[in-house]
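Hi Y.,

Following your request, here is the sequence exactly as I used it, all 269 residues.
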Amino acid sequence: MDEYIVTHQRKILDDNGNPKRDAQGELLWESVEYDIRSKTYGQLPEELRDRFDGYQIETAIHQDCDISEISKLVRKYNNHKAMNQAQKAFTYVDAFAREIREITANRFFLDAYTCSRNDRKNGTLERMAGDMVTLCNYPVQYRKDSKTAFKWLNENATISDFEEVNGLLTRLTACIGAEKEIRALFNSKHAHIFVAAFKAFTESGHEDAEYGKFLEWFANGGNKTEINGKSWEMMGVDPSTRDTSVVHGKINYLVTLVEQYAKEVRKAA
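Below is the corresponding structure, written out as C-alpha cells. Let me know if you'd prefer a different format.
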C-alpha cells in the first residue's frame, strides 16, 4: 500500500450520528483507509489527530534485508525530506558502505582534516572518501556528480581499493606537521586532491616524510610557484572546484611541483 494511505480505526455511527454498540454495550469499530496527501492537521479525522497527539508512530520492520535493500529503503523513507546530493549519492555505493565508513573513521579525519560542524552529518566525509578512492585508483573515472561516481565504484571497485586508501590516510597523517597552515590544506575542497598527489609521489619512489616536508614548504609560500604559468592560488580562482578538469589540473600541478621540490628545493637546502 502507498505510504500516503493511512489505515485507522473509526467508530461505526448510526443514521443519527451516534456510535453503535454491540449486545454487550461495547462500541463498534471499523477499519478505514484515509488519503493524507495535501491535508493539514485540522483536516485529518479525529482518530488520526489523536494518534498524532499521542506520538503514536507506526514502525515498519523489514526483516532479513541485505545492504542493497537497506540503501533502497533509505532512499524511500527519505523521500519526504530531501537528502542533499552527498547523502543520496552514498546510498548508491551499498556494496562498499562499510568500507567507506571505516575510511571516515580514520584518524586523518580527526587529526588532519579541517572539518566543519556539519561535515560529519551531511555526507561530506563519505563523499570525500569516495573521491579519494576514485582519484587514487581510477582517476579517469572521477566525476563531479557523486552519484555517478559512487554507482561506478559500486559496480567496479574492490575492497582492496578502499583498504589501500585507509592505509594511505594513516601514513599521511603520520607525516603531517601540527602547524595549522598545513592542516588547513586538508578541507572538503582539497583533501582528496592532496591525498591523490601523496599516493603519486610515494609511488614514484619517495619517502612519506618527504611529502610532509613538501606540505610545510607549500603552505609557507611554495604555493605561489608557477607551473606552466599558473600557481596554486591562481587555480583557486575557478569557482567550479569539483569539475573534472579543475580537479585533475590541481593534482597534476601538485605532482609536478612536489617532484620539482624534491629535485631542486630540497637539494638546494
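The longest strand covers residues 5-11.

Thanks again,
Q.
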